[in-house]
What we know:
six-stranded mixed β-sheet, Structural Genomics Hypothetical 15.5 Kd Protein In mrcA-pckA Intergenic Region, Chain A, alpha/beta, five-stranded mixed β-sheet
Amino acid sequence: MKLLNLATYMTINTDPQKVEELLARGVNEVINYENLKKQLLSGKKLRVKLGIDPTSPDLHLGRSVPLLKLRDFQQLGHHIIFLVGNATGLVGDTSDKDAERPMLKQDAVDENMQKYVEQAGKIIDIDRAEIAFNADWLNKLGYKEIGEHADAFSLASFIQRENIKKRLNAGKRISLRELLYPLMQGYDSVALKADIEIGGTDQRFNLLAGRTLQEQAGQKPQNVIMGNLIKGTDGRKMSSSWGNTIKITDEARDIGEKIMNIPDDLIAVYFENCTRVPQEEVNRIRTIEDKRIQKIALAGAIIGFYYDQKSAKEQENYLREKFIAKTKNVLTEAYKCKVEESLVDIMVDLGVAKSKSEAKRKIQQGGVSIDTSKMNDIQYTVHETDNQKILKVGKKFFTKLEITK
């Protein structure tokens, strides 16, 4: 376990607007909302825990949802704990499974976790985080301690879980090993003295187990933040076992092309849960009719976060060329224009407006955009930053702008 000098942490940000956003963006449920909000506004430094089991070698966007929430807490100055489940990973969490998860071998877990901390460092500031491994305490427990933990729960409460109930009704096997997992995750919160635990909605039982075991140990029960589960490229829950993931370690081009192939109804979901693009900007992008342009903006935001802005722009240009520029009703050659050339004059020259007055009217009516930006200024002149972007007029006309000085 990596211990920190807490004096190195920033002061706690108690801005009510920041706190509200923290408790809302990408959040499905909070337990206990009022208590947690009061603590966040008090200025108290909270211990915030997120555990991830190394069941596969790469983190993907589904895993990024709780990691981004952990990052949100870190940016407000709280003490964050990134827990690698090298003990729980062996046993396996079946919270989201419709069949028994096989028990992993130790060497597989060890191999999978080799770069977990490094990958998490793409999202959180590792130098200001506590890094923990739950084998450090779980492997030291004996039957006595496990029996005491198990005594806090009933079998009935376990089998009432929806996925467990479905498996029982279908006559599928449920191993006694599966009953141990909530105890293990719950005891992690005791060992780490967590004030808050972050997890997905599928882990509700496990997260509440942490509260139960903390009370049994004489600790205050942790608050819980459950984030949304996101779907993968095929519309099912994003999962390494289904091969429908967008990995945060994927090449920038692969990230972009995978995003272009997600179902249209996931664009807003990904923006809210997998990026921190301001909500006002997300709302504006959602007004764009062409879903391909929305996806290019999404790809740029994600690539820019995990790589850099240069890579994001390069891939945005590549995606425009591949998915838009060769579409019917799109000019096959870029339209060459000069810096500070009038948008109205460009539209007339392209023939998408018969006159300057018609061009101005189309702009005022909201029918003209450059990439993700809706044009509403009839005096607008193009800038160098518009180079290689897509000018769209109406629903069917597109062309790429090539800006020269």
